[in-house]
Design goal:
Elements: H1 2-20, H2 78-83, E1 88-89, E2 94-97, E3 109-112, E4 118-121, E5 127-129, E6 142-145
Parallel strand pairs: 1-5, 4-6
Antiparallel strand pairs: 2-3, 4-5
Protein name: Complex I-13kD-A
């Protein structure tokens, strides 16, 4: 009886395979170019850089997850957006960065502004400086407070 059940199941699977066609053993054509056997400076073609700095060669095996769907990269990287914001002048020696509303999850970070230059919040990247200790030509000095 088990043998007949297995044979019936196999026959049903084979019939579905023939009707649907996607269980075929044939390879599907891909729109990728043929992979070079050796990746050199001349043959390397990289895709877009992600927010983590990853840029893979088109022959890299890790790109196989994007065979069916297009890889989408957001060009608005948060680090680039926050670097476009000008540093805030704070007249006190210590700046408090809370990231806006407390419900957003940014803890209160206290930043010492005694050294000349801009000081960035280690959580959100917002930059602060003290106009009493930092001259305009010293704004190119950068510190990060963690």
């Amino acid at each position: 009886m088990n043998r007949q059940l297995i044979f019936t199941g196999y026959r049903a699977l084979k019939q579905c395979k023939n009707q649907l066609g996607f269980l075929s053993t044939e390879t599907l054509p891909t729109n990728k170019s043929s992979n070079p056997k050796e990746v050199t400076q001349q043959t390397a073609k990289f895709d877009e850089i992600t927010h983590t700095g990853q840029a893979w060669d088109e022959a890299d095996y890790r790109l196989q997850r994007f065979d069916e769907n297009k890889k989408m990269v957001n060009p608005n990287i948060a680090a680039n957006l926050i670097s476009e914001q000008p540093p805030k002048a704070i007249k006190e020696r210590i700046a408090k960065c809370d990231g806006g509303h407390p419900a957003l999850g940014h803890p209160a970070v206290f930043i010492n502004l005694d050294k000349p230059g801009t000081h960035a919040c280690g959580y959100c990247g917002q930059r602060y400086y003290n106009p009493h200790s930092t001259k305009p030509e010293q704004l190119s000095i950068h510190h990060i407070e963690v």
